[in-house]
Amino acid sequence: MLSLRKLSYVFIVLGLLFILFPKATEWNEDQEQSKLLKAAELPSGKNDALWPPSLTDSYARLSTRLTEVPVSEARQNTSPSPAPMVSANEQTPIATISISRIALKLPVLEGATRINMRHAAVHMPETGTLGQAGNAAIAAHRARTSGRLFNRLNELKIGDKIVVNARGNQYVYSVYSLKVVDPTDVSVLKSFKKQKLLTLITCDPLVNPTHRLIVQAKLST
């Protein structure tokens, strides 16, 4: 009798699985369909935003480095130690960036390495060339010392000018967008054909940052 009862339970469980399995499969398919719909609804056309797959990884590394405490501030809480040797080639600026509203002028180094980000802004080589068609991204730490690096970037307004001097040429960009985004939002680096854009990236908020402050500008004509 006990065996028959156990067998009946087995049949009940099998029956429930038979009923629920299609529902579970449908739910999974609905989730996949939803993802595809979202992807399909992204802007498309000849002016599409395009970036190489490697840019996502590069932006993720940059985003992580931005949350690291700048060396100058870290030293305030640790015993003094000699600074590591840095080759002159690594420290050769490719440009300077100036913003009069916040009294900023910084050298721009190529590559978002920890060494480069110590005391300069950095250009992401996977993004556009400064002054040319594309979206050139420049990032810097949001140092806590007032006026240091991109500490005051949040004070910019629409229409403010950003001046970049690179390779003997001067490029004047006009700010058209200021926003705070998730640290994984690589869409801020999207590039449009023929448009000459500049994207500045730093952390937000100033203390214990969880997001990224993005300032975007177009080359003035």
UniProtKB/TrEMBL annotation:
The lineage of its organism: Bacteria, Bacillati, Bacillota, Bacilli, Bacillales. Its EC number is 3.4.22.70. Keywords: Hydrolase. GO terms for molecular function: hydrolase activity. This is Sortase A. It comes from Paenibacillus peoriae. It is an enzyme of class 3 (hydrolase). InterPro entries: Sortase (IPR005754), Sortase_D_2 (IPR042000), Sortase_dom-sf (IPR023365). Pfam families: Sortase (PF04203). CDD domains: Sortase_D_2. The keyword Hydrolase applies.
